[in-house]
Amino acid sequence: MVPFSFGGHALYALPEGALLWPARQALLVADLHFEKASWYAARGQMLPPYDSLATLADLGRLVQATGARELWCLGDSFHDSDGCERLPREAQLRLRTLTGTLRWTWITGNHDPDIKDRCGGETADEVEVDGLVLRHEADPRELRPEVSGHFHPKLRLAVRGKTIARRCFVATERKIVLPAFGALTGGLDVDHPALTKAVGRGAEALVPVEQRLLRFPIAA
Amino acid sequence: MDLPQPLAQWFAARGWRPRRHQLDMLREGRAGRHALLVATTGAGKTLAGFLPTLAELIEAPGEGLHTLYVSPLKALAVDIQRNLVTPIDEMGLSLRVETRTGDTPSDRKARQRVKPPQILLTTPESLSLLLSYPDSVTMFEGLRTIVVDEVHAFATGKRGDLLSLCMARLQRISPGLRRVALSATVADTDGYRAWLAPDGDIDQVAMVQGEAGADPDIAILLPEDRVPWTGHSGRYAAEQVMAEIETHKTSIIFCNTRSLAELIFQDLWKVNTMSLPIGVHHGSLALEARRKVEGAMASGRLRALVATASLDLGVDWGDVDCVIQMGAPKGSSRLLQRIGRANHRLDESSEAILVPGNRFEYLEARAALDAVEAGELDPDLFRPGALDVLAQHVMAMACAAPFEAAALLNEVRSALPYSALTEETFERVLGFIRDGGYSLKAYDRFKRLTQEADGLWRVSHPRFVTQHRLNAGIIVEATMLNVRFKNGRNLGKIEEGFAAQLSPGDTFFFAGLSCEVQKIDTEDLIVRASSKPARIPTYGGSRMPLSTNLADRVRRFLADPSEWPRFPKDVSDWLEFQAKRSALPRPGQLLVETFPREGRHYMVAYSFEGWNAHQSLGMLITRRMEAQGLKPLGFVANDYALAVYGIDKITDPAALFSPDILEHEFVDWVQQSHLLKRAFREVAVIGGLVERQHPGKRKTGRQVTFSTDLIYDVLRKYEPTHLLLQAAWDDARARMTDVGRLAGLLDRAAETMLHVDLDRVTPLAVPVLTLIGREKVSTGSADDALLIEAEALVADAMRID
Q: What's the top EC group for this one (chain A) (predicted)?
């Protein structure tokens, strides 16, 4: 793994779609979308009710592997405002264990602005941590270094006649947009105008593969 | 058999006499028996199907729906006009004949349910939707006859499953319903009789054979009597094909793929020195474009039409006097049906020309010609009904009325594809519709179906009914982008996967034009006509494999030198050289050659099991080689052979062909490959797990659709035995990997293998080795390697010196 420097901090973009901040022993993830499946089920599309469990299993593994002590969720952690109570019992237990053992902060997003019970953890609309602004949706007017989520960026490339689609990070000098971490979250192409509008021109798509961080300029 | 007066007069006025099979159909109709009519195109099949209906309505006129006509095609207009509406008008009968498809305006649809015509023309999907309405009982209770046209084209697939279930329901609503099916010539008439019959009771279905037409006149086109070593399309023969077009009135040029049709059209256009009007027709073209071409064809304004299977069905063109098949025909039934497009007069032979693309294809063309002469047809594979289709049907039944599970199961079992359905599987289907059928009971509050105190199952909310009607249907297309000009004119659709490979400035052949990409957005690919040379569109989709009976014939050719004098000299020379240099397999023998070439070691197996099975085998064998440390580099397959190459010499091919490969490598490979994900996408839509993407409704801004690939991943991890995964596996096995033929090949391999080790390439190996489209063996994270390569390329291209 190769760190990259952002706002004066060394950060690692992990292949799993999280950002590791070794100086704070912190993990940053975005757009978990817990219980997205059951939200659709209520509307007649009976998606497999395992998405929260799958997302939590991935998260748990990552916490273990990195030894993280802080976790920052950058919004849209819950697909809707029902929050913790709709999680399957096993998922609730796992989440409460995680929020109980780590310093855990929920940044609010457009899907989950107002939730009573999030199975533990602190809640904030946005925060500044050691000079980095953490919020859900990138603010084009923000001048400080900023880490956000919301857009679910995805890189699509045609190489040798094969199309490859990957969740990816999008970065400029002052902004990082994280990929969605949730098990059932789709993606938005990195050259989508909405994303360009939010982060400005000259952005790169960052794709972590084993031992390397690949960089692709985004044509805007 | 007496014809009612108006009908007799109508025939007489035309100077016609009803054909024997038309009268036979009338007799079966009057006797109230189900009937299957098997006849060649041009035998007055459609009229034969409707004759009993017309006779009954003449003798006992009445209101209400009398006859339902179901065809796999939406475009019925021309054909039905000629075969049904014109006779009705000319006899002055007051009968209403109406069409109902997805394109029918909704006010007419509503009116049809209240005041149905006497004859309704529809598709399996539209019929299924009609049956989802509570008033379907009133609408169909007087239904006397259902006529299923072109039954050979879809009975063995998912649309056949759906129609079979619909017929079971119709029979319950109207027990006296008579079932009639019209078919082109098929090998297994009993199979179709059983499919048509209630409860699969074959004896209830009368068999009516049409009169045999004149034997077709088929020739193989060999420019200068030579057949090229390589290629698979016959493109080298463009000038000769053009000469045929010039000397015939109207020709159809059939191609095996859409992209080939575009290429052949371009080739012909270049040598079209007389500027004859020629057109192109395939399933990706815009509906308006297809209709326009069909119209021009029907009115005799085109001299030639380059087409794909989209023209295989239905529509009769009348004046076509020559059918040309580019490349190998792949099966004798298919060839016959295509030939049947020409010359619809039974007493004159149809003229057809085959243009083989290489020497194996020559043998295949010769085999097809022999098979047609011998009246040998390809087998049809009837299989158990698909579970995703059953789920869709059960939901439709629930929308129509509350049901009792046991009664519905009985009804479903009376459809042959589902006759062996177990109670347990049916329960699982019900559970799946109710709440997804997961073992984690998380969706109790969200049930779509509820079983009430009276034991009946009901849809729990009207919005699920609406949802079903919006999403029902059997055809699931890949996500497509519209190809348009900037002014909005729509040319057709291409698959998203192909579009993703294009950038502005790229060119490709489409709709007979060289198109230059200007802009790509989420739904449209904006192009302009260009004079630059173009790339080929690859539309994806599966290829039709060589049929088993043609494969057997080709094998017999190889083994029997007494056949060779019939072949052109370069083909017989080729076989003689092969016999001298290596060996020719006897029928039933599996020839495997190994030889070095340019620093690599090759193994070529001549197994003749078709492209799909060979492609699967190539994947499996290279995996096994990997495991054995044989360092495979790649493989290439065609319908006849599989060639594998690598760094090390293969000394024991038999060890690679053992049947246990199906237990070990196969499951692994299919699960990791895109096959199962593609199959899952289809069953998830048909089964109603996810909603269809409706064109024009894709979200802008943040995309909120979810990919079925993600659902697949979660489901495989947490509930690997789920009904939909089972359905996806069924599809992957049957349609995508040809696992039946693969298993047969592997079972025989040990006993029948003839291994010849050589010091250089053999004549028989050349056609497969010169193919493009090789598969590279991918080790580990192949996508990562591609991404790394892409980054390096981009970095080089963008480097500032």
A: hydrolase
Minimum Cα–Cα distance from A215: chain B residue? B791
Tens digits of residue pLDDT in B89-130: 999 999 999 989 887 889 999 999 999 999 999 999 999 999
Interface residue A100 vs chain B (CB under 8 A):
no
CA distance A40 to chain B (A): 9
Residue B659 is predicted with a pLDDT of: 83
Closest-CA distance of chain A to residue B223, Å: 34
How much is the ipTM here? 0.90
Taking the Cβ of residue A5 and every Cβ of chain B, the question of whether any pair is shorter than 8 Å is answered with no
Greatest alpha-carbon span in chain A: 50
Task: Let me know if B474 is exposed, middle or buried by CB neighbors in 10 A (0-12, 13-18, 19+).
Answer: buried
Burial class (CB in 10 A: 0-12, 13-18, 19+), A182: buried
B595 neighbors B777 (Cβ within 8 angstroms): no
CB contacts of B681 in chain A (<8 Å) are: none
**Edge-to-edge strands, sheet with A19-21:** A4-6, A9-13, A19-21, A26-29, A70-74, A103-107, A122-124
Judged by a CB distance cut-off of 8 A, whether residue A63 touches chain B is no
B291 Cβ under 8 Å from any chain A Cβ: no
Q: Do B442 and A49 touch (CB under 8 A)?
A: yes
**Residues from chain A contacting residue B501 (CB–CB below 8 Å):** 158, 161, 163
Taking Cα atoms as reference points, which of B38, B318, B58, B93 lies closest to residue B205?
A: B38
Distance from CA of B508 to the nearest CA of A (A): 14
The CATH number of the structural domain formed by A4-217 is 3.60.21
Nearest to B433 by CA among B382, B463, B396, B483: B396
User: Which stretches of chain A are assigned E, i.e. beta strand?
Assistant: 4-6, 9-13, 19-21, 26-29, 70-74, 103-107, 122-124, 127-129, 132-134, 146-148, 153-159, 162-167, 169-171, 175-177, 188-189, 204-209, 212-217
On whether any CB of chain B is under 8 Å from the CB of A156, the answer is yes
Nearest residue on chain A to B691, alpha-carbon basis = A45
Q: Do A54 and B497 make contact, defined as CB atoms within 8 angstroms?
A: no
A2 interfacial to chain B (CB closer than 8 Å):
no
**Which tens digits make up the pLDDT trace of B324-348?**
999 888 888 888 878 876 665 656 7
Please provide the CATH number assigned to the domain covering B5-209: 3.40.50.300
Looking at the domain that runs over B217-373, which CATH code has it been given? 3.40.50.300
Domain ranges in chain A are 4-217
Among A47, A155, A163, A189, the strongest candidate for a mutation testing the B interface, having the largest count of B CBs within 10 A, is A47
Q: What share of chain B is helix, strand, coil (3-state, %, to 5)?
A: 45, 15, 40
pLDDT interval class at B181 (50, 70, 90): very high
- B664 closest CA partner among B590, B746, B736: B746
Task: Tell me the chain A residues in contact with residue B538 when contact means C-beta distances shorter than 8 Å.
Answer: 161
* Helix (H) or strand (E) segment spanning residue B485: strand B480-485
Q: Do domains B5-209 and B217-373 have the same CATH topology?
A: yes
Question: For the whole prediction, is pTM greater than 0.90?
Answer: no
Please list the pLDDT of chain A residue by residue as tens digits (220 residues). 778 999 999 999 999 999 999 999 999 999 999 999 999 999 889 999 999 999 999 999 999 999 999 999 999 999 998 888 899 999 999 999 999 999 999 999 999 888 888 999 999 999 999 999 999 999 999 999 999 999 999 998 876 656 678 899 999 999 999 999 999 988 888 988 899 999 998 899 999 988 889 999 987 5
What distance in Å separates residue B498's CA from the closest CA in chain A? 8
* A148 touching chain B per CB within 8 A: no
Helix (H) or strand (E) holding B718: helix B708-718
* Chain-chain contact of B713 with A209 (C-beta, under 8 angstroms): no
